[in-house]
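Lecture 7, part 2: worked example. A protein chain together with heme C.
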Amino acid sequence: VIALRFAFLVLAAAMALGTELTPQQLRGKRLYLTGESDAGGITALLGADQVEVAASVVPCAGCHGRDGRGKPEGGLLPSNLRWDVLLHPAAAGDRSRGPYTRSLLKRAVAMGLDANANPLQPAMPRYRMSVAQMDDLLAYLEILDRDREPGVSDDALRIGAVLPPGAAEQRAVRAALGAYFARINDAGGIFGRRIDPRFTSSIGSADERAKSLEAFIETERPFAIGAAWLSGADLPMSAVAERQRVPTIGAFAQYAPPSDRYVFRLLGGVREQSLALVAAAQLAPGARIAIHAADDATAALVRDDLAALGVRQDSKDADAILFLDEPSRLAPLLAAAAAAPAPPLVLIPAAHSAGDLTAAPAALDGRILVALPSSPDDVTAEGAAELRALAVAPEHATACRVALAAARLLVEALRRSGRDLDRDALVSTLESFYRVPTTFTPPVTWSRARHTGTRDMRIIAADVRRKRWIDRGRWPASLDRNHAESATKP
Ligand code: HEC
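Predicted complex, written out as structure tokens:
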């Protein structure tokens, strides 16, 4: 008996860590969640008239919930399908039944009869599937209750955050996010679950940062990551979140791989900022742009877009320079540009700018444009009040603002998703966001084809003579907008 108990404990511990499912359980899970199977189509007979439809139209999870506990809807109460509940006598409404056995369960699914052979309500479809498919389904029902999404328990939800590298900024962002989640918890959490935030930071080379994100996900197992500093390690860190299937909202990010499914970005990155700069520059037809990039991969981010816009790319006698290089190389470039007979426009995405550009050579007066994906002007009155209530340190306001905006979007998506949490469903919810306000940044629109939130950039020009910035208004990354709109149409 002792040995058996011990074996059970080991098994339970392995389950708690989210052991991989067996191939049969995985097949059953797919069948339960989607009604689909590689071993042949499954049909469902609906209602008193026994209308035949594909089971994928009425998957079990649609009524019984991803967690099997039953989602009451429109006066219907789909039963709790937890294995231990099925194996014990139960009463529902005026129907009471004895314990199910495996074969009685199969009969319930195929014929709509409960353990006592009483007919189940016609709302419960009758399913036609093969013996093997039915075995797969039962294999999954048996472990359904333990097959939780990572980070989700009855009363808590683990949410990760990847903090910025600088120590002081890190403390400020951590405090702001902690205070924000504490307020949500004080108000009852989300569908009765308390948010349990877990923090990590992002320090070192791009590869080190990706490795530490992977270790964080594996040890803390967050359901989702609410605010992430990806900038500078965008590609390797996205790859980790994708591989681990963790919905992640990047607060600071520069590049967005177009194939991302789980990673969303709050603000437009270098690509969108570059396109907005080109739009704001209002170049004459036939104008030439020179791209100054740190490496070829960076230049490639915008090369095709510019070509599609009909902008000629030429490094000689360019009318405008798009600066995507190390910020330390900016000063010499400005000096060279100022010395040219006809000084070019210099277009700089925020992340590539450096130093006080209003102190640039006089020849560049009004010719330096910088794109800001978000500025303090984006904070609404409500947002400003919240920043005060959360005691956000003014010197780290920008970092806290974007972190809170990202966290707020995740919370909004969790509220829209309902209690029955599922990572893929959360991704679909995020992809349905249309102009969702954050109160701290411009509103965010995401779709399946587009995981980058804002595309209107604020463009500012350096007034060198009066040593100040001039607001040139918001400019769209216009080309991309066309792309996204045609791409999102089904
Ligand atoms: C359209 C909604 C709906 C779908 C889809 C659905 N069920 Fe049900 N199911 C119900 C309802 C409602 C009941 C309760 C019927 C009653 O109490 O008479 C029920 C009852 C049951 C019961 C009986 C439980 C008990 O305690 O007696 C089992 C077992 C069951 N469903 C399994 C499944 C499985 C497995 C699937 C997918 C293959 C599925 N159901 C799909 C609505 C649904």
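Residues 10-18, 480-490 have pLDDT under 50 and may be disordered. The radius of gyration is 28 Å. Keep this in mind for problem set question 3.
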